[in-house]
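SAMPLE LOG
Freezer: B-3
Tube label: C17
Construct: single chain, 242 aa
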Amino acid sequence: MARSTANIFAAAAILSLSALANAAPLVARGTPSTNAYTNTSGIVSNPSAPAAVSTPISTPISAPVAPAAPYNSQGQPIATVYPDFTSQYNSKTGAVDFHTSTGLVSRSTSNGGADITTLVTFTLDAQYASNQCQLVFDLNAPGSSVSGSSKAQLFTSLAPATADSSSWPSGNLRNQNLGAIDVVAHGRATWQQGSGPGATADGFFPCSAITGQIYGGEIVPQGDNVQISWPAGQDGVKILVW
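STRUCTURE (predicted):
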């Protein structure tokens, strides 16, 4: 499969970032608390929080097409959307640490199978339904770091995390593999497109696939030893709107 670089959106799942499922719908996980989907990191260039709903994502994802040119005249995305929630999942115990301040993707030969993945939850305002979106993964903020293989895989989630849990059955609810990323310190990860029905080229997909809905994803370590860390809502997986 081809490897793309630079001007992609390489995330994302998330989580997810986060990132597109055309096979299985995304549904709400149980009954969220009254403030479960309050946008806390949100849209950088549009500070109003999107209204999230639990309608399943059922729109088929056609072959993604990168926009012919950026949406605005400055060659920049019109919005940058960070996850509303970033959570950590322990693959050994099934525990979820909900709404953490740090994204973490970790695996080592000495951790006894206690790999850590990051779960992300996105909402995207319906005003972007006619735009193209791009899932990317950046490591530029102070406090971000990467070591080991520098590789991760991106998945969609059947439902996003909504609360802390100590074990299964909450878990991560992993769904489709979107592809793999090679994470770059002080830069943007390169994207290797997956072969599943939700895989995208360079992270591009029609924003209409997720606008007005809750979108969940997962970022998973790849390789025997890898650690990737970033401040949630400031770096890591995000969605660019073109």
